Request: fold
Amino acid sequence: MLTAARTAFAEKGFDGATIRGIAGAAGVDPALVHHYFGTKDALFLAAVEAPADPGTLLPEILDGDPARLGEGIVRVFLRLWDGPLQPAGLALVRSAVANEWSARLLAEFLATRVLRRVVATLEVPAAEREARGALVASQLVGLVMARYVLRLEPLASADAATLVGAIGPTLQRYLTGELPLGTPHT
Reply:
C-alpha cells in the first residue's frame, strides 16, 4: 500500500491522489487502506516518512502574531531539526537529493501539507500564494542543507535564537511583504 501511495502522491500530488486509486494500484480494498492509515493525510505522512505531522505543529505557528509568522516558522522548524527527529529528516532530504521521485514527494509535502496551509491564512492575493510558499520552502531547504548536511559555519553551530532573528524576517518578507512577482513562466 505504501509503495502505491508513494507512486500516486509523487505522480499526482496530494490533491490528485485518491484512497480508492491507491487501493486499486495496491490490489486491496479501500477499506483496508482506511483501516491501516485512517485518513489520506495519515497515509501521505507514512508514504513520505515524514518525521513530524504538520497538523500538530501548525497551530503553534499560526496562533502567534501574524507579523512574526516568519520567526515562528523558523523557531518550530529548528526545534524539530535540532531534536530527535533530525535523523529521519536528514534521511528524507538526502533521499530527495538523490532521487527525483523522493524529491517530488518532499516538494509535495512542503508545498501542500505545510506551506499551503500557512499561506492560506494570510491576506495576500491568491495568485501569489504558491510563489510565496515556494520562496519560504527555498529558504528552509537551504537552511537544512547549510546547517545539517554541509555543516556550514557559523550556521551549523549557531543557536536557534540567532537563526530565528536572522532568517525569520526574510521568511516574513516572503510571506507578507512586497515581492516583485511577475507572470509565471509556462
Q: What stands out?
A: The domain at 51-176 is CATH 1.10.357.10 (Tetracycline Repressor; domain 2). The mean pLDDT is 87.
